[in-house]
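Forum: Protein Structure Q&A
Topic: Joint prediction for protein chains with partners

I've read a bunch of threads here and the consensus seems to be that you should model interacting components together rather than docking separate models afterwards. I'd like to see that in practice. Below is the full input, 540 residues plus whatever partners are listed. Could one of the regulars post the assembled result?
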Amino acid sequence: MPSVSWNFISKLPTEGMTKGGILPAITGTVLLTFITTIFAVPFGIACAIYLNEYARPSVLTNIIRASIRNLSGIPSIIYGLFGLALFVQALRLGTSVLSAGLTLGLLSLPYIITTTEEALKRIPTVMREATLALGATQFETIRDVVLPKALPGILTGVILTLSRAAGETAPILFTGVAFYINGLATSFNQEFMALPYHLYMLSTQHQSIGQVRPLAYGTAVVLIILVFIMNCIAFYIRFKQRTQD
Amino acid sequence: MDIKKRESLDWFFKQAFKATGLLTICMLGGIFLMLLYNSIAFAMDIKPVDFFTGYQWNPGNANGKYSILPLLVSTGLVAAGSMIIAVPLGIFTAAFLSEFAPPKLQAVLKPVIEMLAAIPSVAIGFLGIVLVGPGIAKLFGIQNGLNALNGSILLAVMALPTIITISEDAINAVPKSYREASLALGADKWTTLFKVTIPAAYPGLIAAVMLGLGRALGETMTVLMATGNAAAMPRGFLDSIRTITATVAIEMGEVPYRTTHYFALFAIAAVLFLITLSINLLGEYFANRLRKFQA
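Posted by a regular:
Agreed with the consensus. Here's the joint model:
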C-alpha cells in the first residue's frame, strides 16, 4: 500500500520498471476503454433497439438472439485470437491500441446488447403507443421518447460492461499491449501499456520479481480502485433510478 | 421536416438497426470460420489421431509433439476442482439469500457479489501468487504453491457470482405456494428447502452450474498466473498444470506466423470453443426447462 502515492500514478516508469510510476499504463487503459466505448456502445445499443423495438418473432430473430447468447459465453482468449486474425492481420491494423480496443469492443458487444434490451423492456408500451398515435414515426418515437426514458438503465449496463473490459487482459495480449513504451501513447496505431497487463508482467515475468513486488501491489490497487469507481457510478445511477420510479 | 423526409429517415434507421443485428451473426460465424480454417490447416500437418491421443505437448521444433490431452486434462482438472468448491457454496449462499436473509442484509450482499464479479482476473491471479500460493505451500509442506489446487480455489471465487446470481433467480422463481404447502404439512424451514424448494429449482441450478463451469473453463489470466504452467500430464491437484487458455496466451506471442505451431494454437482454441459452446447450450436447455415448468 505505501507504494501508491501521487508520484506513482503521475510519473513515467524508470530504471527498467523497478522505480517510478505507472502513468503510461493508466493513460493506456483509459485510451483503450475509450476506443472500446466508441465502437461497442453505438452498435450494441442499435442492435438492442432492433431486437426490442423492430424485430418480430421469426427464425432470423431467434438466430440473432442465439448468436448473442453464445458470443457472451466464448472465452476471452478466443476473442484475442479473433482480434489477431481479423484486425491485426486481415485488416492490417497491426498490433496497436486500435486493434486491441476493437477486440475488446467485440467482447463487450453481447453484454451491452443484453443490458440495453433489459432497459428498453422496462419502458411501458403505452408510452410508445401514445407517441405513435400523435403521428410520430417509429424512429422518432425511439429517439425522443424511448431512449431518453431508458437512458439511466442503458448507462448502468454500459458502465458495468466497460469496467469489465478495462480489466481484461487475455484479448489484448496479442493485439497491441506492450510492457514498456517510450513515453505516453499518442496515436491509435501504436502499441500501448495497460494496467492489467502491467500487473501480469510485474508479478510473473519481470527479471527481478522480488524487487518490483511493491509496484505490483500498487498496480493491483490502482486497477481495482478504477474498476470499483466505475461500478459505484453504475450502482449509483441504478439506485437513483429505482428511487425515482 | 416534411413527411417524406421523415419517413425515409425512419426507413433508413430501421435498416441500420437491422444491420447491427446481422453483425452479431457475422461475428459468431467469423469466429467459427477462423477457428475452423486454422484447424484444417493444422490437420494438414499433424494427424488428428496424434492430436487427440499422444501424451506430449512439446511444440516448436521440426518434430514437435502436438497432443492436446495434457492440456485438456489440466483444463478439466482445474475446472472440476473449482466446481467442487463453488457449487455447494454458491447454491447455499443463494438459498440463504432468498430464503433466510433479512432484506437489509440482502441489500448489502447483492452489490458485494456484483463487485466480486467485477474484480479483474489478473488481480485474482495476483492474489493467487501472493496469498493462496504461499498458503498452499505451507499447508501441504511443498515448495511451490502454484498448482491446480491454487487455480481451482481462484476459479471458484470467479465462478461464485455467476452461480449465486442464477441460482438465486431459480430459487426465487419457485412458486410460493410450494413452500406454503410444505410448511402447512408441518415440515420445518430446512426440510422445505431441501425437499421442496431446491428440487423444484433443480433445472435452474443446473443452468447456474453450467454457466459457472463455462466461465471457469474459459478463464485465462488467473490460471496462467496461479497454476505453474507445466505442460505435462497432471497426476493430482498438487501438480503444476497448464490449461488450454494459458497455452494459447503464453505461446501465441512468440510463435512465427502460419507455422504448424501457430495453427496448433488455433486448433486447441477450437476444441475449447466447442467445449464451452456445448456447456453453454446445455445450460440454456436447462434454463428453458425451468421456464416451461413454471409456465
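Chain B touches chain A through 61 residues (CB under 8 Å).
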